[in-house]
Design brief:
alpha/beta; 9-stranded mixed beta sheet; 48% helix; globular; binds (2R,3R)-2,3,4-trihydroxybutanoic acid
């Protein structure tokens, strides 16, 4: 046999072997709300590369952006996509037990929030997802939300009075802003920038990570470090997608999700640390002196209502968590 023929034969024998993994590959589609270069994009891409690596390429994970979170959850529910990384904004409309984590001033800091979500308390809420046709895989995060607007500096609740503030489609948040004297206007994130540009709303509230990744400084002049509510995110998947995984692959899936969680949280911490300076550099007026006690006092009627409408015992366990 000539060398050329031998090489051709070797190539012919090797070719099917080389293509076998690709043929056996199962594709998983994950959508997330924010740009690739954000805490959410980093979470999704970390999940993708981790799960592909852990399964030696038997799975291919495609990460896509979709800034309508309600739409992503509906798509996961009907199975047109496999998973989403979403804020809890609209999730309470699907799994009402999640609303407990949307209560303002519930978490003292990131350590408190992450600790509670990773504890039995967070697991118990994830366990409520299957009854709603969804699988809650793991808690990730958006971070503590801050107020921005185009009208004035906000130092206390009186400064908020009469401002039209876009909120997420979340009844806990809407109640909070009504109680504070603002005019909450719920809408999907996809509608936010046009609404701010057109002046349909005066302001919005989001963690620094979101404000920086989406250049909201271009449409908002003032930011106040209210940190008025912690904003969790959650990885939600379609039950059939998860059900099709072998037991061993399900463990790898969970491991990939944990790697995504670590990358996401590290990025939120980094964004928070650098954010005030970065947004000032971009020309925003950032107010760091906030009368937090005044905001908490103004919310008293809403807190009393949530004691009745949400799970009061769990709220207490969360507040007492050390
Ligand atoms: O999940 O809708 C929102 O304000 C969310 O914080 C954002 O889309 C990131």
């Amino acid at each position: 046999m000539t060398l050329t023929r031998r090489l051709a034969l070797a190539a012919a024998l090797a070719a099917p072997l080389a293509t076998t993994p690709a043929l056996a590959q199962t594709q998983i589609t994950v959508q997330h709300a924010l740009p690739a270069n954000s805490h959410t994009g980093v979470g999704a891409s970390t999940f993708a590369s981790a799960f592909e690596r852990l399964t030696n390429g038997r799975y291919k994970v495609v990460a896509q952006r979709n800034d309508n979170e309600r739409e992503m959850i509906e798509s996961v529910q009907i199975g047109t996509i496999d998973c989403t990384f979403t804020s809890t904004g609209p999730v309470g409309n699907f799994v009402p037990e999640v609303r407990i984590f949307d209560v303002p001033f519930l978490f003292r800091d990131a350590t408190h929030a992450r600790g509670v979500l990773d504890s039995e308390i967070g697991q118990q809420v994830l366990a409520r997802f299957p009854a709603r046709g969804l699988v809650g895989v793991i808690w990730i995060e958006n971070g503590f939300r801050n107020m921005t607007n185009s009208r004035r500096e906000i130092h206390n609740p009186a400064d908020l009075r009469g401002l039209k503030i876009r909120t997420m489609e979340n009844q806990v948040h809407m109640r909070a802003f009504t109680t504070l004297g603002a005019l909450p206007t719920p809408m999907a994130f996809s509608e936010l920038v046009p609404a701010l540009q057109q002046g349909t709303v005066d302001g919005q509230e989001n963690p620094i990570s979101v404000i920086v990744a989406n250049n909201l400084n271009q449409v908002q002049r003032y930011m106040t470090m209210t940190r008025h509510v912690y904003s969790p995110q959650v990885m939600i998947c379609n039950p059939q997608t998860v059900g099709r995984l072998s037991q061993a692959d399900r463990a790898l899936f969970q491991q990939a999700a944990r790697e995504a969680q670590a990358a996401n949280r590290a990025r939120v911490t980094a964004d928070d640390d650098a954010g005030v300076e970065e947004l000032r550099r971009r020309g925003m007026t950032v107010v760091t002196e906030v009368d937090t006690a005044a905001f908490q006092a103004a919310l008293a009627p809403a807190f009393a209502e949530w004691e009745r409408t949400l799970d009061a015992a769990t709220l207490r366990r969360i507040r007492d968590w050390r």
